[in-house]
Amino acid sequence: MTTPALLPLSGRRIPPLNLGTASFPHHRATLRLSEKFILLLILSAFITLCFGAFFFLPDSSKHKRFDLGLEDVLIPHVDTSKGGKNLGGYLIHGQGHDEHRHREEEERLRNKIRADHEKALEEAKEKLKKSRDEIRAEIQTEKNKVAQEMKKKDSKPLPPVPVPNLIGINSEDPTDKDIREKRDKIKEMMKHAWENYRQYGWGHNELKPIARKGHSTNIFGNSQMGATIVDALDTLYIMGLHDEFREGQDWIDKNLDFSVNSEVSVFEVNIRFIGGLLAAYYLSGQEVFKLKAVQLAGKLLPAFNTPTGIPWAMVNLKSGVGRNWGWASAGSSILAEFGTLHMEFVHLSYLTGDPVYYNKVMHIRKLLQKMDRPNGLYPNYLNPRTGRWGQHHTSVGGLGDSFYEYLLKAWLMSDKMDTEARKMYDDAIEAIEKHLIRKSNGGLTYIGEWKNGHLERKMGHLTCFAGGMFALGADGSRDDKAGHYLQLGAEIAHTCHESYDRTTLKLGPEAFKFDGGLEAVAVRQNEKYYILRPEVIETYWYMWRFTHDPKYRQWGWEAAQAIDKYCRVSGGFSGVKDVYSSSPAYDDVQQSFFLAETLKYLYLLFSNDDLLPLDNWVFNTEAHPLPVLHLANTTLSGNPAYR
Ligand code: DMJ
């Protein structure tokens, strides 16, 4: 039996690349996507054809199968003596009686294949008639469908858990008119920061208020994840800026996507994004924030894949590949980074019922407990490959700070059940007091930095948060030294206020010395800047809550006025490069923590104490309030969703 030349036919009728390029001869370079699409269409037509040929062409065995349909009978047999033909073990009977019908049927099938093929080609031609934009739109629709599917998969509801006691989300206005006006002023500053970000930096991580465009730094990699939106949400909420809050929620719902090929800081993403999303979830009850927090946490988990389980400082959100900062002592991870995950990760386990997050941070804690500490101090650097300390530098400021803060807050957040964390905090603070805290000749208490056996008499703006931490940890301290720690907090607050008061702008420098006759002033030019940081105001707020000494409100108001006077520009708020200069240059960055922390602490300073009471809420290091987990202590045994 001869085979009709279907393959040459298809070869002649489908000159794929010629058709595609002929349609858009002058767009060759720019039409790569469309060409791929067309090529795919043509390929699929070609495959259809081959598929047809494979099944329908009269190669011997296939042909016999069609004969089944022709009512011939196939009988397994090898005997050819009865005039039948041996075809692959089957004997065809009645070959002579219906050859005509057989040929007709074959012809019918060939026609059908041709018709199908023609149809596929027609469809391909129709596509080619479409404009580039139409084809793009179709591709986009397909992509959206896939994205929607994936979203549905990611948005699987989480198991229900008992909602913690959410007390003090709202509060009455302060009765004192002066305080109310000050609070309103802070709210106005928040609006100014937010509206300019929305106008000029929307969706970018931060804002350049002078250039009036988006800004980002290496902590967010090359991502555009709207850090300011996420960081600002809970401040907007507690200030009653609900329209702005909803704008932020809408952006997050539609645009916040973590499948980006971007290498981000695990610590920064945890404290700003996961902390911000969790706080927004608890305050507003909107599920989207919880879901996004859990999705993001999943992207951070590969950072823990190190020989010791101490996470890398950075992780690529797409590939999961992690690494450490090039400048950190011999490839080390940083204490303040891997030690500032506990609060958020405990909440993630609580909300998901998945112990993976809890186990990761508890593993870090166990490992730290086993290690020797020089003079009882925790060095800032730890190598995640070897599990050994890097350089023996200890700081309560940058590189160390929030590790100590999270030990205390782990205890508070567990409704004071996590006594192991409290003990670690007490031990660490005792060593810090012994080796790092000193009084200057002028009577200012300061916290220095320990470097290879020597005390550097320098204190960072970051270190000023410790005043609030000492006050917060006073209650429940070892040997009932509550009074002592409250006093220590007050002394640090005073020193930090001096660092502001001794400048021209009444704003604090990045670092200040207690050396060579100098007290609480910056010496080096590159330590004279103020980048809208919150730590000093944070300490004023804690001290206000614990003492109600009006000087803390006074100091907070001084700082707010200085910020409004020297950092406010028409496009938002900017840091300044020299707080000792009467006409300082701007750094042109509106940091996301200005909205998350600085303005929030100021607002709380002029609010009643029943707004986010400290018995029920614990603020993460980015000032995102998380509720105390009364039911799920740190063993999570009280959590019914726990698996
Ligand atoms: C914030 O991102 C956090 O407070 C962090 O713990 C350290 N510093 C910045 C603000 O100064």
Which CATH class? Mainly Alpha
Biggest sheet record: 3 strands, antiparallel
Query: What integer value in Å does the Rg equal?
Result: 35 Å
Average pLDDT works out at 85
Bound molecules: 1-deoxymannojirimycin
Shape: elongated
Given as residue ranges, the uncertain stretches (5+ residues, pLDDT < 50) are: 1-33, 53-96
| Beta content | 5-15%
Q: So, CATH architecture?
A: Alpha/alpha barrel
**Structural domain count:** 1
Termini gap:
68 Å
Strand order of the largest sheet: 1-3-2
Structural class: mainly alpha
Number of helices in the DSSP assignment = 21
What oligomeric state do the depicted chains represent?
A: single chain
The portion of residues assigned to helices is 40-55%
Short note summarizing the structure:
With about 650 residues, the chain is mainly α. The protein has a single domain (about 175-625), classed as Glycosyltransferase (Alpha/alpha barrel), CATH 1.50.10. It is built from 21 helices and 22 strands.
Protein architecture, described:
It is built from 21 helices and 22 strands. The protein is mostly helical. β4 (about 205-210) and β5 form a beta hairpin. The chain is elongated. The protein starts with 5 loop residues before the first helix and ends in a 16-residue tail after the last strand. Residues about 1-35 and about 55-95 have low confidence and may be disordered. It binds 1-deoxymannojirimycin. 1-deoxymannojirimycin (DMJ) binds near residues 534 and 622. 1-deoxymannojirimycin (DMJ) binds near residues 533, 534, 593 and 622. Keywords: Calcium, Disulfide bond, Glycosidase, Hydrolase, Membrane, Metal-binding, Signal-anchor, Transmembrane, Transmembrane helix. It holds the Pfam family Glyco_hydro_47.
